[in-house]
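[step 3/7] inverse_fold.run input=structure_tokens len=153
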């Protein structure tokens, strides 16, 4: 899983080191990089494994091929996605269009979200985190534990 948050600086060549725990998780799934695309909801980037973007693509493909919705999703997610590969030192280079969407200049915050992660400009994430914490508190009753069978943890 992708957990915790890590801040790193973009170097003079436009590269940034991906957190070792994130690289390790992706490597354990057989990937030497990840897919990233502009978030719908925030000035941030969504990031996921190849299998996750394939699942998203399959979901888009399941829509009626003659409906505009399908084209809207495919254009907004798939055509904007970038396959970012790690170099030998575990760094990636984010394209300018992604950096601009997330308003990233110097520092990058990698934010673990379980099966996916996001990439933020650190001060923008701090503002979002305050709102998210309040909303999570207000909606805490929506989180339900699944009932497990005997013998399961």
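[step 3/7] decode complete -> sequence:
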């Amino acid at each position: 899983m992708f957990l915790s948050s890590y801040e790193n600086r973009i170097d003079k060549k436009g590269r940034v080191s991906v957190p070792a725990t994130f690289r390790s998780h992706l490597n354990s799934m057989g990937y030497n990089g990840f897919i990233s695309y502009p978030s719908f909801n925030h000035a941030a980037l969504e990031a996921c494994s190849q299998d996750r973007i394939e699942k998203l693509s399959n979901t888009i493909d399941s829509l009626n091929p003659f409906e505009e919705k399908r084209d809207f999703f495919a254009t907004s997610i798939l055509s904007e996605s970038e396959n970012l590969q790690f170099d030998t030192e575990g760094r990636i280079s984010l394209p300018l269009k992604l950096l601009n969407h997330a308003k990233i200049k110097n520092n990058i915050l990698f934010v673990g979200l379980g099966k996916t992660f996001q990439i933020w400009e650190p001060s923008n994430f701090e503002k979002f985190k305050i709102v998210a914490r309040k909303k999570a508190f207000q909606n805490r009753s929506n989180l339900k534990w699944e009932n497990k069978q005997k013998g399961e943890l």
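[step 4/7] annotate
The two ends are 18 Å apart (CA to CA).
The first strand starts at residue 5 and ends at 9.
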